[in-house]
């Protein structure tokens, strides 16, 4: 299959995570803890089976495992909890923006060479996110849920950075999911004792699809196609995720498109594009 089609399928899977989670919580009658646990366990099972089929074994050890597992748990439950309130596209935009800002902050901390263009891009992205979350008028974004998604974005950025040195990205991801699943199940204890767990057949199906297909298989597909993409191409591809999620939310969940969200999206995605895309050099005559 051509790289373009593989990349498009991967971006659809990433965006579908937002739409499926929002649909499971709002339309599927699920609580965030139950949805998150089912998604996590489904992803662990799918990735473990994929490793056994393609590698012949599942390796659960490796360096950076604790960091990867903790970051995955924070991402998973921040992401799920945020979608109790946020629309699909809005959540994906905050998540994506914070992932890129986290990567930028890591580069600064590691004293990598950070150009003025990258500083300008990061500032624009931060300004767009701040404007989006600033309480104005009646259509305010919940600071609690926006904050949860921002934390999820930071966690996913840390997760990505911690796994950059993995010899086998698929094995590393599968191990993180397998270790995180039983730990994540502890999140059910408090709501279970308070009778706050709500499980619905439709919500369970959506959580399984979000875990096994759009998360497990989606991540596996991304690791397959990533070595075949230039870094700039991978960055451009990820710019489409919030847009696809927004379109899915509007088409399937009846979510509205506001002028404020549109303009903030231009700031965030434009800033990220300025920061991550390579400068085009003129050919010398």
Automatic annotation (TrEMBL):
One of its GO terms (cellular component) is membrane. It is found in: Membrane. It is a multi-pass membrane protein. The chain crosses the membrane at residues 33-54, 66-83, 89-107, 119-137, 143-162, 174-192, 204-222, 234-253, 259-277. InterPro entries: AA-Vitamin_Transporters, EamA_dom, EmrE-like. Its main location: membrane. Keywords: Membrane, Signal, Transmembrane, Transmembrane helix. Residues 1-15 form the signal peptide. Residues 148-276 form the EamA domain. This is DMT family transporter. It comes from Roseovarius bejariae.
